[in-house]
């Protein structure tokens, strides 16, 4: 009898090495850990992978990965030194979310502190709040030990801003203002919102909006999702926002459910693109809720993008979706999108390419 019990115990131990018990479910541990990120930010994904593969929590791995992107100044749109606003200043938006507790920490329009994702985690760890903004967010981050105050501009961002000023501050994000062909100050012009379509078409060009087109090189975000070895999920985002934005503008980066969202029971989502449009639809919340209702990641991603594109046909953006079993997919509108993945079955990070109105699915 003792020999039989020992054999049973050995079988149980062997089985526990292959499967992890999560709640009332048994999940194949070979799926985990896993890292998914917007864009070919390969070094950021490698950093997050090393952390989570070493046993870090999902939240800590997300912070490590996004921090790497901030330090590398990915595409000039993450971290310090990029995307100047109308005053030539770079500011930071960031968010981190724990899919176990549903806690969120975020900072927005943060000045003088370069470590956006670390500041967001400090908000989550040491306050009962979700979002801190502006100089008060900077003061909080510095008081909690992050370096600062620091000039977040760079030679490149300053040169970009000077050239923009020389071009009469065009294009910009103002509309229905006077003057529109100089650098302001701007004042409200006559309201044209009640004109007919025919009347609006007769408006002189100088009264029409000349909003800058969103693109990879002027408006971008790292959004990252991590599943750790225990199957717990976290997400994070970091961005320095839209180039030549109106000072004080906050995009979707620090908005839970817009730039990213996570729920251990379902999965995660990350987004990038025109944050001013995307935050009106909370696409990542939509993706996770669609998956909760049984929709596959590829269909959930496509559905979220189509909901936006139906209202804004010229919308530029993308989302990736990942369920709790590690199945991932993405969809986009207005541009070709790439996202990066690292899982146990891969020797290194793999970059997937998605075309408008199409999806890439891992399985």
Keywords:
363 residues, alpha+beta, Glutamine Phosphoribosylpyrophosphate, subunit 1, domain 1, five-stranded antiparallel sheet, 17 strands, 23% strand, disordered N terminus
Question: First CA to last CA: what distance?
Answer: 45 Å
Lateral arrangement of strands in the main beta sheet: 6-5-4-10-9-3-15-16
- Low-pLDDT stretches: 2-28, 196-210
CATH class: Alpha Beta
Q: Given the structure, what is the number of helices?
A: 10
Average pLDDT, to the nearest integer? Answer: 87
Number-wise, the strands total 17
SSE layout:
Layout: H1 2-18, E1 19-22, E2 25-28, E3 34-38, H2 42-53, H3 58-72, E4 92-98, E5 104-110, H4 116-126, E6 131-133, H5 134-143, H6 155-166, E7 177-178, E8 187-188, H7 197-201, E9 222-227, E10 233-239, E11 260-263, E12 267-273, H8 275-278, H9 283-292, H10 297-311, E13 317-323, E14 328-333, E15 337-342, E16 350-354, E17 359-361
Parallel strand pairs: 5-6
Antiparallel strand pairs: 1-2, 3-9, 3-15, 4-5, 4-10, 7-8, 9-10, 11-12, 12-13, 13-14, 14-17, 15-16
Quick description:
31% of the residues lie in helices and 23% in strands. The protein is built from ten helices and 17 strands. The relative contact order is 0.15.
Question: Mind explaining what this structure looks like?
Answer:
The chain is globular. The longest helix has 17 residues, at 2-18. The chain has 363 residues and is of the alpha+beta class. The protein has one domain: 4-Layer Sandwich (Glutamine Phosphoribosylpyrophosphate, subunit 1, domain 1). Strands 6-5-4-10-9-3-15-16 form an 8-stranded mixed β-sheet. 31% of the residues lie in helices and 23% in strands. It has helices at 2-18, 42-53, 58-72, 116-126, 134-143, 155-166, 197-201, 275-278, 283-292, 297-311, and strands at 19-22, 25-28, 34-38, 92-98, 104-110, 131-133, 177-178, 187-188, 222-227, 233-239, 260-263, 267-273, 317-323, 328-333, 337-342, 350-354, 359-361.
